[in-house]
């Protein structure tokens, strides 16, 4: 693992950063290095991150972890009176728990996801929404024949946006405004 972090460690040291984080190709795992480029086991970092989120960011709800993740998370969760949800290994399983609202996201993500699923917008890019499909994600069929879709990946920690229209400018506008609706302006490409 440490050999895979050599390039990241060099970048962190060169940039004077506090830490570096690297995800594998499908975001099902990650590695961390400290300010000197040394490997830090995620099982040591996750409990610190959880404590920070609970104390400094005032997260509430349940704590999710995979079966292979350190039980130090359980100790911290119990100390804060929170339930732990254990899933099989793989983000697709933890992701299902997150999208059902069982594990807290950031407050902004939680509000936006809840709004999107429970109350999709009636207009997007100035055009009324004719139909909403939740067959696979959330797809908005617009009255002008264009469409926009937001889809949570089942295997990666990402949200994908899709749009289709008759021209590139309109597609770009749909993507930009859709991302603003679902992620806020900070989520823009």
Short recap of the structure:
Helices cover 37% and strands 24% of the residues.
Walk me through what this model shows.
The protein is α+β, with helices and mostly antiparallel strands and 189 residues long. It folds into 3 domains: 1-40, no CATH class; 43-104, Alpha-D-Glucose-1,6-Bisphosphate, subunit A, domain 3 (Alpha-D-Glucose-1,6-Bisphosphate, Chain A, domain 3, 3-Layer(aba) Sandwich), CATH 3.40.120.10; 110-187, TATA-Binding Protein. Helices cover 37% and strands 24% of the residues. It has 6 helices and 10 strands, in the order H-E-E-E-H-E-H-E-H-H-E-E-E-E-E-H. The protein has helices at residues 6-15, 42-55, 72-79, 91-99, 107-118, 168-183; strands at 19-23, 30-34, 39-40, 63-66, 84-87, 123-124, 127-133, 138-142, 147-152, 159-164. A 5-stranded antiparallel β-sheet has the order 6-7-8-9-10, covered by helices on one side. A hairpin with a 6-residue loop joins strand 9 and strand 10 (159-164). Helix 2 (42-55) packs parallel to helix 3. The mean pLDDT is 81.
